[in-house]
Amino acid sequence: MASTPEENLKRFTFERILNQGTLFPLLSIETTYNHLDTRSKSINLLGHISRSAAVLIAEKTCFDAKDLSPLLSSLQISLLDKNDIYHWFLVSSLPSNDASIFAFTTGAKVTLIYPATPQHIAKYSQQSLRMIVETPSIYEKHIKPYIAAKRGEGRLNWVYNILTHAAETDRIIVEDPDPAEGFILLPDLKWDRKTMSAMYTMAIVHRRDVASLRDLTKQDAAWLRRVQQKIVEGIYEKYPGEVEEDQIKCYVHYQPSYYHFHIHAVHVAHDGGEGQAVGRALLLGNVISQLEVMEEGKGFKDLELTYFLGEESELWQGVFGKTKSRAMRP
Amino acid sequence: MASTPEENLKRFTFERILNQGTLFPLLSIETTYNHLDTRSKSINLLGHISRSAAVLIAEKTCFDAKDLSPLLSSLQISLLDKNDIYHWFLVSSLPSNDASIFAFTTGAKVTLIYPATPQHIAKYSQQSLRMIVETPSIYEKHIKPYIAAKRGEGRLNWVYNILTHAAETDRIIVEDPDPAEGFILLPDLKWDRKTMSAMYTMAIVHRRDVASLRDLTKQDAAWLRRVQQKIVEGIYEKYPGEVEEDQIKCYVHYQPSYYHFHIHAVHVAHDGGEGQAVGRALLLGNVISQLEVMEEGKGFKDLELTYFLGEESELWQGVFGKTKSRAMRP
């Protein structure tokens, strides 16, 4: 008589792990960025049932309680780390005589931001996304002035502090000091600077005339190719034996989070979620080859760009959401 | 005297949920695709401690046991669904008198593939990725013949069956029967066809002369723009009130998983992980605008394309890995 599926599952004999979510970043401040490792709550196992191979994939379920606060008093809480208003805890079930339950369920990492500002609350709130099409004329009329405002009134001082060695000098990984060609590569705050498969760095160029992708023209292609080469070689030389050149992925954001041209360089194994998704990120290699085949004098300012925006973003609120409302009027 | 962080955490008073991973796809077969919802194991809460606002972010931890099989016998197992060799279970802690522990830890979704083939084992195994640069000449010399082989010997029969209404007719969401202009849009197997924020569809074009992105030329731009418009309008009309046109994201893969041109159309809220990452996916809107600014007669065959490949893939094993080994020889 055939076994039931439940009986089969109980007869699963473990052989080896096929794949597992990394434990990183349990101790990092990555949680402050709402940027999760997609693979971190699952495990794929190879085993057998009778004489047949079997693959078992286990994936943690969602929280099924809405208000967790009454539970906190009955659970074990240990502080992992603390930085200003950010506190990181590991919260787990009370020690049980039945060790198997504990091992299977483990617990949760809890981040407490206290006191929290309205900006924190907005950042961690659900946000609906919209696809938008930014034509060259919308860029000229609405986005360029917005970018200019975002570059004014000292808002980029933190960038200039890095570029002039007034701040974060000890964090520099790779540097090319040439004012026209060069850049400074720093670890992103998301990275613990140890786990190479989670490597996340950012190269800020010395040139101050490129606010975003939109300012790149055909004549910048050769410069960008050199910058990409220097980033990749620089990281490879800085971490010998830990990462190879073809394990480094370079991309840019449009819209970026600040308007001084910068390049994200990450380990290709890094599953970056929204930050690496099409509609937000563009692969630097493809940006360069796209520039190379453009006609003389052309650049990204001449292209229609499609991307997604949060409904809470200034650009949706101030530009695209308004256009949409107008277009929908009779 | 100031409270300790642990004391503060225990004093957290719940106000409302800011954001929560969706429960989808607990009952879907999405797990067979190793494609996880990044947001499904965390919850962001707003509350207060004394009179200050506080944000609490809880995130399930990874499995800390390698061999789960000894645990299975002591846990509650319920079969959720079954299809051929695929079995889906919900595994949870034994009912405890302490309901809070149960609510906090919940359990895991377990997929059992039994019997499993070597292809299943490879699919669920960890794979190292490499960034590669495919020049126009590598494309002509190595990739084009590879694609031709992948299109031969009936390998696309399942696609032609869909296009000729010989199969999956009842699953069609949108159809434009024109042989030169048209396409058939179907739900992807990843989608449960109910949860709109997880909408995942695929449009297969009727044209048989486009194997991949590489075959698109400037003169295809207008056709693609019409196809995109029809996909977006078609989905909007099929699901009135459930999804808006600017909530639909269209993209293509390079390399694709099969070599008959097709477009992925998903809900913009769908966090697609690797399948939507730069280096694998290209946003259709940007592909179109890139074609539009190309010179007459040019196309994606004339571009250098950068993307990532798994080391187990045929193209890494057969082409790029070999080139790399040769380049590294003295």
Structural write-up:
The structure is a homodimer of 330-residue chains. Chain A has helices spanning 5-10, 69-72, 99-105, 118-123, 136-151, 157-163, 221-238, 284-292, 314-328; strands at residues 13-20, 42-49, 52-60, 76-83, 86-92, 108-113, 129-134, 174-176, 183-187, 200-205, 248-253, 262-267, 281-283, 305-310. By secondary structure, chain A is an alpha+beta fold. In chain A, the strands form four sheets. The first copy, chain A, has a six-stranded antiparallel β-sheet. In chain A, strands 1-2-3 form a three-stranded antiparallel β-sheet, with no helix packed on it. Chain A has a three-stranded antiparallel β-sheet with strand order 4-5-6, with no helix packed on it. In chain A, a hairpin with a 2-residue loop joins β4 and β5 (86-92). Chain A is globular. The interface between A and B is large, with 131 and 131 residues. β3 of chain A pairs antiparallel with β6 of chain B, so a sheet runs across the interface.
